[in-house]
Each structure stands twice: as C-alpha cells, then as structure tokens.
Design a protein that fits this description.
It is built from ten helices and no strands. By secondary structure, the chain is mainly α.
C-alpha cells in the first residue's frame, strides 16, 4: 500500500466522537492556513469526525477567536485583490466559504479601491497605452470581466475615449 498526498486517512470510529481529537486536528489545519468556521467544520467532517462534534469544536474555537469569519473574509479579500481579482470573483469565493451576505459586503468594503485595481490589472496585462480598436477593447473588457470587475470598473479602467471610431475618418 502506497502512502502519498492522495491517500487521506480517516479517523477511526472511536476518535470520531472525541472532541479533543477533533480539536487537535482543527488546530493542525489552522496552523497551515486560515479557515472560515463553516469550512473548518466541513473539513473535520470530511476527515471522519462526527458532524455534531465538529460543529461543537468549531463553535468553541470561534468563542476563543481561534476561528474568526470576519478576519478570514478580510484576509481572503486582501489576498485575492493582491492577485488582481475583482469584487465579483471574490464575492463568489466568500460565498463558497460559507460567509453571509452581510460579512461579504463588509469585507469587500474594507478592500482596495476596485476602480484603481482594475486599471492597475489592465495596465499590468496590456501596457499603459489604451486600446486603439474595438476588437482589442473587447478583449481587454473580457479579461477584466473574467477577473471579476464590474462594468463601471472596466469602463473606468479602459477610459471612455480609448478607441478610435472608424466612422469619424
């Protein structure tokens, strides 16, 4: 039997109901990266711990502020914005982590100026010169939209007078 990254061992049924074992596993996971409370409970359940035990351990850790959804959301916003992701894409990631809409809005409001970020991302990818024709403008718009920026952010990043209209010759 080969042991590797793909082989995940589940806990035995005696430890599955042990809150101390679940807490130890949760602390080990938190040592690697930040987790949202729902995400941590799901991960513990996937490892084989009873769902009630996992929920109890996560609730206790939340009271101790070892798991903090607000801190997680702000951290995720900073990380993804640093990678050039826009608010729509980040909102989806936060939803997948189990965040509520109120927490998502608060975290996105604490993020960077999205218009400025969209302009920086466009400039890093395509250079400082504005697009000169409609196909290039459309290509840049699709790129920014894929990154999660809104139409307003994209319009601001591209500038309103960036293209030469062929009919004005």
């Amino acid at each position: 039997m080969a042991f590797g990254r793909g082989m995940k061992r589940r806990v035995d049924e005696h430890r599955a109901a042990d809150p101390d074992a679940a807490r130890t596993a949760a602390l080990a996971m938190l040592g690697r990266r930040e987790y949202a409370s729902g995400e941590l409970a799901t991960a513990l359940t996937r490892k084989g711990y009873a769902a009630t035990v996992a929920a109890e351990v996560v609730a206790q850790m939340a009271e101790e502020r070892l798991v903090d959804d607000t801190r997680y959301a702000e951290s995720l916003v900073r990380m993804l914005a640093g990678r050039g992701q826009g608010p729509a894409r980040i909102r989806q990631e936060l939803r997948e982590a189990g965040m509520g809409e109120e927490q998502i809005c608060a975290a996105l409001d604490s993020g960077p100026d999205w218009t400025v970020l969209a302009a920086e991302v466009r400039q890093r990818k395509f250079g400082s010169a504005p697009p000169l024709d409609w196909p290039e403008r459309a290509r840049q718009m699709r790129f920014l939209q894929y990154r999660g920026f809104s139409k307003d952010h994209i319009a601001s990043a591209l500038g309103s007078s960036g293209c030469v209209d062929d009919d004005d010759s």
